[in-house]
Amino acid sequence: MKTLLFLFLTLSIAYAQTKTPVYRFTSADNRFLDSLEYDTFRYFWETANPANGLIPDRAPTPSFSSIAAVGFGLTSYLVGVERGYITRTQAADRTLKTLRFFANAPQSEKATGVSGYKGFFYHFLDMKTGERFKQVELSTIDTALLLGGILSAQTYFNKNTPVEAEIRQLADQIYGRVDWTWFQHHKPFVSMGWHPEKGFISADWKGYNEGMLLYILALGSPTHAVGPDTWAAWTKSYEWAAPNWATFQSQAHVNFDPLFGHQYSHVWVDFRGIQDSYMKSKGIDYTENSRRATYANRAYCLSNPAKWQDYGPTIWGLTACDGPKDTTVANRHFFSYRARGAASQQVIDDGTIAPTAAGGSLAFAPEICLPALKTMKASYGGKPYGKYGFRDAFNPTYRYPSAFANGSTKNGWFDIDYLGIDQGPILLMAENARTNFVWNLMKRNPHIRRGLQRAGFTGGWLK
Q: Domain containing 423: what range?
């Protein structure tokens, strides 16, 4: 009994000591973030199709719509209202058009002429028609990210007006239609996707990653909830799937190599001070876990074992992003779009830095993320930053003839595109870092609270 009490007290003390430190933003910090948030917001507001609310996966390169980018965009509109970029009426009108599209978009098992099936939506949709793009998968995680934005709108637009009442009604309709149990091909786990041509993708959501929000929404569903055993099975898979608890770059945490896996779910859910059984056993919460992952990512870049150009205290950040090209030059291997990252299990690093790696972690570790963003904006003749904030990525090492990759220069390769799934975490986590706005908003959403409680989270704001 004394041993158990000692263990409990030890973990409690450790948890109390590892809460995210409070960072005081300076006037210069706020000026920088004011500009960054406004520029990044404009990506969603100006590139969306105003007729159906669909947001492109990338710009300025012509692109299909990413449903995850739509989810980030819907929450970005709310920040736009709070920051005075747009009016509440403008945001409500755009949001209503978006939700009407998703509520009425055709759903069936057919391979063409539809937008989704069983309440889920295809990963990419045609920007104009809203129908499935080529043969992409019916995506569980991208539907979850879309729902994060939809539920934020449901909570925010709480006035007794016809427009805001319809937003709330459509949000419930879209969320309630999602049949999470149908996607449990290998129960209790949820499959990553489905194709009408060949059925379920063999891979399931197992091991720590960005799937945390997906399982919270699946558990919180008022109509098609997965069983209460699902979360325990998922956290158990941390120990036998590829990502697991380990010490990497002196940081003990649940490892996952690209930083986006430590960021996406945190955009909408404030994990500070709440714990499931797994994190209770480790004496921290998931926010602290993401803070440690951010520090480990930076520390790996500082060590720079492959000697990539310019890596340092304020030039760092590995996550999923574009790259120069899939090629080998001068015995160096480079990639195009790929999930780059560094963790105990693997390192994928070709010298490509993604500003969203630091930007998406602003709410975890502003003391290291802000200096990085400031330096990246000011460096390289301004190439990493443009009218919509940070472009997706750059690679200072890739100094080869332009024939190898669009964007190559004598100073390296610089992406020309902005990506919606990068811009969202930068804007929304900057706002969470400054005001807790999205986090506090989602604490009021009954579906999020229900999902967390069914997952076994306790403490903090859930009391």
A: 27-194+202-455
> What element of type H or E holds 65?
strand 65-66
| Cβ neighbours, 10 Å, residue 187 | 14
Q: 74-116 pLDDT, tens per residue? A: 999 999 999 999 999 999 999 999 999 999 999 999 999 999 9
Inside any domain, residue 329: yes
Q: What is the DSSP secondary structure assignment for residue 194, as one 8-state letter?
A: E
Whose tokens are 């999470």? That residue is 180
Q: Residue 121 and residue 110: Cα distance in Å, rounded?
A: 13
Q: How many domains does the chain have?
A: 1
Give the DSSP H/E element, type plus range, for residue 100: helix 88-104
Could you tell me if residue 430 is inside a domain?
A: yes
Question: For the stretch 204-227, what's the b/e string if a residue is b when 16 or more beta carbons lie within 10 angstroms of its beta carbon?
Answer: bbbbbbbbbbbbbbbbbbeebbbe
Residue 151 included in any domain:
yes
Tokens encoding 435: 């005001």
Q: Give the residue carrying structure tokens 């947001």.
A: 55
Could you read off the pLDDT of 332-373 as tens digits, one per residue? 999 999 999 999 999 999 999 999 999 999 999 999 999 999
Per DSSP (E only), the strands in 319-359 are: 320-321, 327-329, 332-334, 338-339, 341-342, 347-348
CATH number at residue 269: 1.50.10.140
Q: What is the pLDDT of residue 5?
A: 43
Other CB atoms within 10 Å distance of the CB of residue 112: 9
User: Within 304-383, where are the H helices?
Assistant: 355-359, 366-378
Q: Which residues pair with 348 in a beta bridge?
A: 341
Residue 200's SS3 state is strand
Angle at 363 between CA 387 and CA 95, to 5 degrees: 55
pTM: 0.95
CA atoms within 13 A on the CB side of 163: 14
